[in-house]
Amino acid sequence: MLEIRPANETDVAAISAMQRASLPETYGAFLGREAVEAFVAGGNVETYFERHWPQATVATLGGEIVGVAVLVGSLLDLVWVKPEVRSRGIGSALIGAVEQQAAVDGDELTLEVWKVNARAVVFYEQHGFANSRSFEDPATGLEKLELRKKLGQARSSAEYSRDPIG
């Protein structure tokens, strides 16, 4: 059964391992596998989650962490679902939980996504995010989109967990 809960410090290793294992597969096609592997080898995944676990929400199936979302203020900084369980509603459930958290302090949620990451762009658009601007990512030279969503458009977590897309 899917459980969505706040992350805790003891989750950092499992969250990092999940993302580390799937980053090359997910981003290698447009960032270059070698660049992604160097990013992972540099300890950047662990450093990120060691810093941001207090802002993270995790999704678990049978006790295994299979997804994570990181909300920093009104910025949805990361949504990641283990590739083997994508398209089962996990990402949608994480979005629903993060929207509820963000609505406590604000009325809008923002995120950035590489335009070439078509699967992610479609996912966010299906969840009510709209492109507010495009810009060049200085780190990669790729075009990024800034997507925004008014939180009055938020669906409940239960609605998201029934969504077959995320």
For the record, the CATH architecture stands as 3-Layer(aba) Sandwich
**What is the CATH topology assignment?**
Aminopeptidase
Structural class by secondary-structure content: alpha+beta
Q: How would you sum up the major sheet?
A: 4 strands, antiparallel
How much helicity do the residues have? 40-55%
- The string of secondary-structure elements, in order, is EHHHEEEHEHEEH
Radius of gyration: 15 Å
| Gross morphology | globular
The strand line-up of the biggest sheet is 1-2-3-4
- Give the uncertain stretches in residue-range form: 156-166
Domain unit count = 1
Spatial gap, N to C terminus: 16 Å
* Mean pLDDT value: 90
Question: In percent terms, what proportion of residues is strand?
Answer: 25-35%
Total number of strands: 7
- The helix count comes to 6
Classified by CATH, the class is: Alpha Beta
CATH level-4 homologous superfamily: Gcn5-related N-acetyltransferase (GNAT)
